[in-house]
Amino acid sequence: MLINKSKIVATVATLLFLLPASASSQLGGTNTVTSTVTSSNTVTGTTTVDKTPPSAISPSVVVNNQDVCTRAVSGSVSTQILGISTGMVSTDETCERLKLSRSLYGMGMKVAAVSLLCQDVRVFQAMEMAGTPCPYKGMIGSAAAEAWAANPQDRPDYRTPVESISVDGK
């Protein structure tokens, strides 16, 4: 409970001035007492509210198996008004291609393993530069080279500008 000092001062002053008047009136005397009390009270202060917002915590995305070609990424942002967090998993296609090719090779399917790797533009061009063209629909060697030449739209580097494609090592 807050105590108002100005009210206390006014009440005490009134009692002090009225008490002798009431005592003298009881004794038969006539006294007139007039009392005016003016009080002014100003309170100045600052109020600090320390209300920090809760922080945004990034979810932990765990990829336990090392034989999986995935990466976990998470992040968060927090301001005084809003906090946002997210997490996701991305797949590495090159890693998957290598693992699948290794499995096919391990099962004795060497042409299929090479064909799978040849879907990568870098491998396709490296095989071509080495003089061993990638297999084309079951054909290998010079038959595959002729089939690739006849069907350039099937090449993995078909969308690559023609100037960057080397023909016959030139």
What's the layout of helices and strands?
Blueprint: H1 5-27, E1 70-78, E2 83-91, H2 93-106, H3 110-117, H4 121-129, H5 142-150
Antiparallel strand pairs: 1-2
Concise account of the structure shown:
By secondary structure, the chain is of the alpha+beta class.
Structure description:
The chain has 170 residues and is an alpha+beta fold. Helices cover 37% and strands 11% of the residues. The protein has helices spanning 5-27, 93-106, 110-117, 121-129, 142-150; strands at 70-78, 83-91. It has a two-stranded antiparallel ribbon with strand order 1-2. The longest helix is centred in the first third of the chain and has 23 residues, at 5-27. The radius of gyration is 46 Å and the shape is rod-shaped.
The global form is: rod-shaped
> Radius of gyration in whole Å, from Cα?
46 Å
The CA-CA distance between the termini, in Å, is: 96 Å
> Residue-averaged pLDDT, rounded?
76
The number of helical segments is 5
The spatial strand order of the largest sheet comes to 1-2
Give the amount of beta strand, in percent.
5-15%
Describe the largest sheet: 2 strands, antiparallel
Number of separate strands: 2
Low-confidence stretches: 21-26
Coarse structural class = alpha+beta
Q: How helix-rich are the residues, as a percent range?
A: 25-40%
* Order of helical and strand elements: HEEHHHH
Number of domain units = 3
Note the main attributes of this structure.
170 residues; alpha+beta; single chain; 3 domains; 2 strands
